[in-house]
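Section: Multi-chain targets

For targets with more than one molecule, the full set of components is provided together so that the structure can be written out for the assembly as a whole rather than chain by chain. Components appear in the order listed by the source. The example entry contains two components.
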Amino acid sequence: MTYTFNRRNFISFSAAILAGIMVSPDFTQRYFSSNRLGNRFVKVFAHDLQAARAVGKAYLRDIPQESNASILTDMILKSGTALMQRLDVLSEKNLIAKLRSTITEDFISGNTIQVDGWVLSRTEARLCALCTLL
Amino acid sequence: MYIDSRKLNTNKIVEADICIIGAGAAGITLALEFINKSFRVCLLESGGFDYDSETDDLSQGILVGKNYDLVNTRARIFGGTTGLWGGHCVPIRPINFETRDWIPYSGWPISRNTLDPYYQRAHKVHKIGEYNYDTIAIAKSFGLEIFPFDSKKVESTVSRYNAMNFGMEYKNTIGRSSNIDTYLYANVTSINILTDADYIRDVSVKTLGGNNFSVRAKCFVLATGGIENARLLLLSNKVQKNGLGNEHDLVGRFFMEHLWYPSGVILPAKQGSLLEIYSSERAYGSTYGIRCHIALPENILRQYKIPAYRSEIGTQRTPPESVVSARILRDNFKYLEFPEDLSQHVLNIISDPGAIIERLTSKKELLLSYRLLNYVEQIPNPNSRIGLSDQKDKLGLNKVTLDWRMSTLDIVGIRTAQKLIAAELGRTNFGRLRMELPEDEKVMLKVSGGCHHIGTTRMHNNPKNGVVDANCRIHGLKNIFIAGSSVFPTAGYANPTLTIVALAIRLADHLKGIMAKGEGAG
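Its structure, encoded as tokens over all components, is:
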């Protein structure tokens, strides 16, 4: 499928790309609520979104000043290479690649954040935060 | 020959060239080195070949500081704590022999290079194969790869394992030796010097049955473990009132452990084999196994100024929390008890009863995750110490006191290590790590030791800074030496037994030289 990206659908897209980037999609839902690990990793959009939202809520609880989709989108797009800022010319495949690359860069540069103890890339934590705004 | 000291005539005097006090890893290694040599060896052991509760009770003592098990971390038996240990063998890393400006009281008077040939010989004693710790090559031999860490941030190390009981393994070898007499149930109560003398004349020995004897020798080696070595020196205070070799109040100080704190969960992105060689021991030779671990490289220790850090990786397969809660309630109800967080457990069960049913009816595989078993070097602390209580044991000797102290500096490295490991897991997208570290003070309450008793008669060339010199001879005394981890100035992260054996072999060579020259006081 070919997307025409704009800032609006980037938000909903974030949840989908997290399926390929984050681990065990419902781990956070179960883990955050009771500190127990959850079920097997399942690549289902609905479960990923739940997990992403759980992470995102915890992130925004700690950093409430980023509780705005526009602010979050700006931060995510600016944190990577300049190419990500031209959403409209990026294919889905390239956007996924760029986001993965940014997340890797975050871990290399130490741009990480602890969300309820989980050490996450700042970018992936922000992507999760975006999902709470869906 | 083995002799039951309980059957000896009281006031007997045993004569030998070398008297080894203690038949654990160090004492037995020394004895092996002296087999069939021209000089006579007397080996004294508090216990026998089997566990004896009355003898074990002699290890009881008084705790002044942090909680610690003085009895079950020691073993008064031929073979010592090699009857209890897990067999973990790894040499101390070069950086741990250096004076590190961020670790007070660090620095050995010998280097790793000095010990390398003795580590090689120690491998034969331990029966753990060649002296080779090439992690990549060893992993490849299993058809596995090590984790693709950036080795400048996190490194993989390998250890060898053989939980050999030295007592059982070498009982016959030592028993057959024509020049070694081993006295069992022999408790040294005092190490004796004459007034103004600088050599040991003899040691007094007593059995729980009440008979006494003494051993005279040209040289003595104290090899009773990190707690008892210090205690015996402090007890030997008829002439040197502060205890033998304790002119500068160092005997018993700097008690260190390896700090152990399980914390940190790794959730992999997919169930794979990348951590397989870390999560369990694998048979490598006919008598030993290997296992990989995660450690912080030397450049990181220097950069962040932290103590040595290593982590073992444990696997866990975790069911959904409703199943866990059901188990907890079942186990509590069995004893008519209620867990503190009963309402949460009930909520867990109500919210996901299907998982319980599925667990009961299905053999579906549980999620594999990994737990970090953090293992840290304790920083030397002179106020962490062994002393003597006013309470007496059944031999009439002052019981030991242990005031084990640590500081938050000891555990600072755990946070740094986990952040670095988390970054590497994220960079490679292997998975994510959850740090489970509360405030430092809470970590300190829960951290435990690895049953390693280190540092209480530390090695230093300057008698004002150490109890023994670089040859493990007690400063100020000509003919008494110490073997064991009590001489380590720092702990590193390496389990101590391989180094104990290597140092014992080195000391044995030194003593052979003394015997050859006809030296040794007496």
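The first strand of chain B starts at residue 2 and ends at 4.
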